[in-house]
Amino acid sequence: MKFGAHISIAGGIEKAPERAHEIGCECFQMFSRSPHGGKAKEITESVVSSFKRNCKEYKFKNYYIHTPYYINLASVNNRIYYGSISAIKKELEIADLLGAKGVITHLGSAKELGEKEAREKLVKGLIKVFSSLNFSCQKKVILLLEITAGSGNIMGDNFEEIAYFIAEAEKVLRQAQDEKYIELGVCFDTAHAFASGYNLRNKKAVKKTFDDFDKIIGMERLKLIHCNDSKVDLGSHVDRHENIGKGKIGIKGFEAIVNEPRLKDLDFILETPGGKVKNDLEILKGLREK
After folding, report:
1. What gap in Å lies between CA 26 and CA 268, rounded to an integer?
2. How far, in Å, CA of 48 to CA of 14, rounded?
3. How buried is 258 (Cβ within 10 angstroms: 0-12 exposed, 13-18 middle, 19+ buried)?
């Protein structure tokens, strides 16, 4: 079990490893470009070499890329829909270049199509993502679907829906024999899951939540934890992160999460607010030692 945080790439992605080291990260997550849109900056061989050299210097083996915020694989606007497919594909190719463990993405909203049609379009989008990928080497790339808080018509806020997306996309990928290079996994965000209605406030609740996850999706699909407390109550369906122990999940909840044996080999990434990430890392490390 390693703890880390989302790290700024201001001045270049090659600066992320040093910043992660400075606050005590054991792993880290970053954007490869502005999360709000615009053309992605070219990642040259020099940048790749510098990034990998810095990762080696600061002993980072596990790091992840998060896609931009505008992703919507259920949009009726072709510019957004195909732009989302292109953006995810690009992040997978960058992850391959940099040696990242995986790419985390949100999925989009069903507000324009309705639930059934949106789900079908989203699956088709996932399949399109994996067509004609340009890999620098033939290794398996993992795309992690992040559980959401379910605000409005945001998709992916329950285990059943995520299981459906994975199963339906993989039917086609298996037929195309693309599964050799592709893996679909899950990023479990504690704040999102709690807001969506999955209780994490104590040992019994944590066990029940991951029992359900295992039954519906399968624990082998769980590849990463986004470790955030929640400003909102259980089942509120609002995405509001809080510092560890200061929110509605609480310190007992995170003690139970850190001590859940099925999570012991996973990386935990903080996305907590207010410039207190270093303190949150120390809290998590203390719970792990305890």
Report:
1. 9
2. 8
3. buried
Cα 219 to Cα 262: distance, rounded to the nearest angstrom: 8
Per-residue model confidence as pLDDT tens digits over 72-129: 999 999 999 999 999 999 999 899 899 999 999 999 998 878 888 999 999 999 999 8
Task: Work out the mean pLDDT of the chain and round it to a whole number.
Answer: 92
CA dihedral 208→266→195→148, nearest 10 degrees, is -120
The pTM score is: 0.94
Distance CA(168)–CA(165), nearest Å, equals 5
Q: How many domains does the chain have?
A: 1
d(CA 269, CA 243): 13
Domain that holds residue 21: 2-289
Rounded to whole angstroms, the Cα distance separating 126 from 217 reads: 17
Q: What is the CATH number of the domain that holds 280?
A: 3.20.20.150
Task: Report yes or no: 104 and 66 within 8 Å, Cβ to Cβ.
Answer: yes
